[in-house]
């Protein structure tokens, strides 16, 4: 377990290091964005997220030539998710830069003054507005009537949630009083803390999803395909920004807010017009008021009040130059870590969760905190019995900042990360270079079973009509199926199925027929159906072609689960397989429960062999090239061999049929002779493979 080193100063990075880090940051931030925007389930705190965006920006500032086309600095949020029609915003919905201190705030003011050519000491009129922690939406009014409402989406295009937004009492269907023919009004949809707690209580009662925080609850409630569900949730709305408008609406932002009020919107009553030197006191006042507010805020947004100045200032990348979010510091508290429990996710990842003595952090009772993974526990040296500093950054799942070492009891226990899945008892493995440890018993692990069974029955796998997620979940919950082999025993329970809610004789008979139709399956589909990590359709096909037959494949895989075995080397040297996939297969076969699943399946179904590339002169032969070839490149030689149906590998083993010896062939030539494998000179190979000898 190697601890993650602290980030290197940007100034110390070489160009190559900067390039690699930008690639990593782009991927990481994209994953965080997807979790946040598409699943309403943030993976990291706002502070951690912001830190990564800032680092990305700092590296890009030093190496502008390395800015990636997919850089987070060029993107806003996540693309609109499926399910809703898309709406293109008439004016993009942008984001806000962040500051965390008075000095950073002063730098923002300095930039504004320099940009506008104002003297250093010029006073600036600002609007200070609490930064509501909800989700922003854009409302289009045409001739005073609400015609469209959209989420922010990627900033350019959002989801059409018009019907849902119409159910909010705080969103007027018609603007009261004169208004431009066309106007985009923007603001925040949010849920109060009390409504959030009540919703979660009701959700828990009904066995439904629990939301992590009011922001997620608001997003989840708004993004419902059925507007009736949104109507049943208590959502509110504060208006605070302008998009497109067919005519000028005001000369200042404060005057615009007044018009919003006159049109029938709620404008946050705490918003205040200030001069820049009053901002720090306003910030302090809001920090103090925060816990007592009915809704979550995570900072204050300061906007230049003069709209003409706003227009002149414009945007720098994704952020306006005329506004800034001054965020509150994260809320922290100390408490005792009483235990670490392991949760197993739907994909088999083991996640350690700290169990804490419940403590009040900024008005929320916190009893658990995520520890992410094994390395995180080691890096922070978290031990059971420790006092830890925990942080709720605004809203997301609480994080452990650090251990309070001064309070470590002498008997604090280091945590031994389990190597066995706590849910099903299968081996949990951690591939080199990965942070996550995973349960290998996917097919039988209750934490993963439904997901795996859905994959097993899906179109590219067994393709069993009628066995979709809903049916599988219900059958699994009621004990009709526990593993894949049980699917083929369902026909014995036809009557029982027919008697179930929502089923009948006909549908049960259809299901039984669909299952019967899939009792024969080609090896490649079968391998794919097992859902072994990294074994997609292409790799499954490669394996099926290479090994041909189920029993051969199974025997070889079991042999390959021994590290250093010949079967393992042979597997890893198949073109397109490599050591990483070989390891996944080996892990799968090392688990006896998985082998039991294969045996159970094999007794229910017929797995048909896959033809090797037929017709070629070398069909099915395993060929190794070694030494320096003089009449052709390695790539050419390999391509010709494969065209003739051979498989080209790197290692000479008993399974090798032919070794082609180039100049100065060494160890592999010797090994071939030892094993009695046939060898060919380059010229002999040329004549055998139909090329012209040199
Ligand atoms: S103004 C171009 N005002 O903060 C300026 N945003 O981090 C656009 N937010 O997406 C935003 N309260 O969801 C503005 N009073 C307020 C806000 C506010 C909350 C959110 C909004 C935006 C995010 C930017």
Question: Can you lay out the helices and strands and say which pair or pack?
Answer:
Layout: H1 15-38, H2 46-62, E1 86-88, E2 98-99, H3 102-116, E3 125-132, E4 135-142, E5 145-151, E6 157-159, H4 162-165, E7 182-190, H5 193-205, H6 214-222, H7 227-231, E8 236-245, H8 253-263, E9 272-275, H9 279-289, E10 297-304, H10 307-313, E11 315-316, E12 319-320, E13 323-327, E14 331-344, E15 350-361, E16 364-370, H11 374-380, E17 383-384, E18 387-392, E19 399-403, E20 413-414, E21 428-429, E22 438-439, H12 449-457, H13 469-477, H14 484-487, H15 494-498, H16 505-516, E23 520-522, H17 523-529, H18 537-547, H19 550-560, H20 566-572, H21 578-590, H22 592-602, E24 606-608, E25 622-626, H23 634-643, E26 647-649, E27 658-661, H24 667-675, E28 678-681, H25 682-689
Bound molecules: 2-(butylsulfanyl)adenosine.
Structure annotation, total helices? 25
Q: Would you report the number of β strands?
A: 28
The amount of beta strand, in percent, is 15-25%
- Report the mean per-residue pLDDT as an integer: 88
Number of domains: 4
Ligand inventory reads: 2-(butylsulfanyl)adenosine
Q: What is the CATH-assigned architecture of the largest domain?
A: 2-Layer Sandwich
Instruction: Determine Rg (CA atoms, Å).
Output: 31 Å
The largest beta-sheet arranges its strands as 2-13-10-3-9
CATH class of the largest domain: Alpha Beta
CATH fold descriptor of the largest domain: D-amino Acid Aminotransferase, Chain A, domain 1
Question: In CATH, what is the homologous superfamily of the largest domain?
Answer: DNA ligase/mRNA capping enzyme
Largest sheet: 5 strands, mixed
Poorly predicted runs: none
Kindly, what is the distance between the CA atoms of the first and last residues, rounded to a whole number of angstroms?
54 Å
Helix content: 25-40%
């Amino acid at each position: 377990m190697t601890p993650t080193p602290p980030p290197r100063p940007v100034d110390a990075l070489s160009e190559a290091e900067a390039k690699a880090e930008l690639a990593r940051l782009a991927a990481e931030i994209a994953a965080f964005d997807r979790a946040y925007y598409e699943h309403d389930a943030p993976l990291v705190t706002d502070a951690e997220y912001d830190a990564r965006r800032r680092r990305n920006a700092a590296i890009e500032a030093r190496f502008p030539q390395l800015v990636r086309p997919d850089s987070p600095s060029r993107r806003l949020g996540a693309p609109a998710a499926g399910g809703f029609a898309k709406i293109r915003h008439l004016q993009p919905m942008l984001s806000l830069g962040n500051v965390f201190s008075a000095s950073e705030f002063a730098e923002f003011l300095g930039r504004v003054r320099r940009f506008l050519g104002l003297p250093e000491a010029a006073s600036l009129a600002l609007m200070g507005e609490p930064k509501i922690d909800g989700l922003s939406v854009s409302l289009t009014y045409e001739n005073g009537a609400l015609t469209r409402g959209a989420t922010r989406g990627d900033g350019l295009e959002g989801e059409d949630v018009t019907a849902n937004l119409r159910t909010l009492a705080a969103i007027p269907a018609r603007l009261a009083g004169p208004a431009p023919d066309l106007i985009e009004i923007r603001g925040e949809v949010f849920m109060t803390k009390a409504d959030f707690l009540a919703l979660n209580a009701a959700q828990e009662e009904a066995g439904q999803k629990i939301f992590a925080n009011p922001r997620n609850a608001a997003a989840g409630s708004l993004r419902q395909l059925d507007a009736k569900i949104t109507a049943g949730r208590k959502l509110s709305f504060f208006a605070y920004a302008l998009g497109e408008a067919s005519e000028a609406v005001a000369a200042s932002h404060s005057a615009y807010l007044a018009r919003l009020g006159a049109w029938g919107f709620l404008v946050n009553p705490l918003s205040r017009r200030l001069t820049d030197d009053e901002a720090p006191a306003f910030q302090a006042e809001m920090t103090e008021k925060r816990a007592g507010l009915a809704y979550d805020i995570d900072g204050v947004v300061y906007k230049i009040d003069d709209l003409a100045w706003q227009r002149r200032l414009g945007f720098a990348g994704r952020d306006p130059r005329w506004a800034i979010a001054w965020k509150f510091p994260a809320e922290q508290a100390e408490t005792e870590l009483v235990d670490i429990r392991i949760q197993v996710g739907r994909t088999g990842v083991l996640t350690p969760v700290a169990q804490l003595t419940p403590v009040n952090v900024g008005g929320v009772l916190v009893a658990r905190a995520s520890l992410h993974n094994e390395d995180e526990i080691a890096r922070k040296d978290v031990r059971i019995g420790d006092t830890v500093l925990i942080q709720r950054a605004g809203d997301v799942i609480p994080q452990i900042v650090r251990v309070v070492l001064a309070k470590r009891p002498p008997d604090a226990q280091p945590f031994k990360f389990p190597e066995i899945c706590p849910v099903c008892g299968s081996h949990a493995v951690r591939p080199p270079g990965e942070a996550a440890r995973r349960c290998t018993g996917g097919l039988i692990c209750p934490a993963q079973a439904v997901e795996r069974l859905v994959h097993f029955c899906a179109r590219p796998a067994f393709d069993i009509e009628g066995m979709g997620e809903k049916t599988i979940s219900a059958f699994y919950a009621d004990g009709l199926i526990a593993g894949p082999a049980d699917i083929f025993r369902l026909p014995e329970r036809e009557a029982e199925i027919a008697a179930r809610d929502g089923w009948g004789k006909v549908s049960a008979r259809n299901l039984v027929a669909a299952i019967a139709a899939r009792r024969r399956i080609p090896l490649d589909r079968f391998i794919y159906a097992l859902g072994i990590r990294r074994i997609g359709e292409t790799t499954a096909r490669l394996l099926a072609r290479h090994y041909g037959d189920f029993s051969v494949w199974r025997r070889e895989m079991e042999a390959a689960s021994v590290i250093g075995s010949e079967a393992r080397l042979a597997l890893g040297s198949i073109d397109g397989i490599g050591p990483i996939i070989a390891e996944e297969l080996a892990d799968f076969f090392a688990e006896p429960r998985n082998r039991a699943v294969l045996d159970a399946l094999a007794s229910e179904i017929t797995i048909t062999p896959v033809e090797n590339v037929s017709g070629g002169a070398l069909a099915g032969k395993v060929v190794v090239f070694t030494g320096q070839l003089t009449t052709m490149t390695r790539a050419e030689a390999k391509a010709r061999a494969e065209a003739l149906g051979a498989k080209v590998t790197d290692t000479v083993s008993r399974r090798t049929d032919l070794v082609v010896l180039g100049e100065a062939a060494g160890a592999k030539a010797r090994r071939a002779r030892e094993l009695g494998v046939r060898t060919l000179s380059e010229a002999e190979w040329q004549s055998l493979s139909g090329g012209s000898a040199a």
